[in-house]
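Thread: "does anyone have the structure for this chain?"

Original post by V.I.:
We have the sequence but no experimental structure in hand. Need at least a predicted one for the grant figures.
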Amino acid sequence: AGREPLSVAVDKAKLPASTEGGIVYVRSKDVDPSMPAGRYELRLSRAGKDTLITSGSLTKDEQVSTICASGTLLAWAVHSPSTSLQNSGTVVSGHLHVMTLGTKLQQTILLGDGAWGLSLGCGTRFIAWGNGSGNGDPGQYVLDVPSGKIWKLGATRGISLVLAEGNILEWALPPRSAQESAPWRVVKWHAG
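Reply from O.Q.:
Generated one for you, tokens below.
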């Protein structure tokens, strides 16, 4: 009799992302009842060890909605439900956190929508995002982490998608008609 082909790497994980360094994931009360309400943790599971990378607080109805990780960067979005202008006079926006793993330095970017369906990708030196199929800001953006500079790649309502790996950046372009597939642009990132 042989060994089972599967073994549990991490349990009670939310939004796992594989990197060459292990598995990065979110732990919060919605997947782990032992977690305190209003808190989240980003953790790394590697070679049987589980390590806290960072943690944060959440207000009522907020939650981490997506993450991405590379060997050098970690990014995660916190979904904040929009509040009607008629009810409170303000609109709450989602925010995007970006961490350089080697230094643990973080940046926070206020987003143009609630970050519920955010498309997020981590390269070696940059992160890219779009709102996926959401109704908010249709823009696709890239942040060069070392310089802190943000570029707008384009805007594709309903398919504001991005991908990133290493120094490769990809984003969806608008289709020519509703019956056609969206083409993608693929580039090498040279900023910094």
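V.I.: this helps a lot. The two ends are 54 Å apart (CA to CA).
O.Q.: and The longest helix spans residues 85-88.
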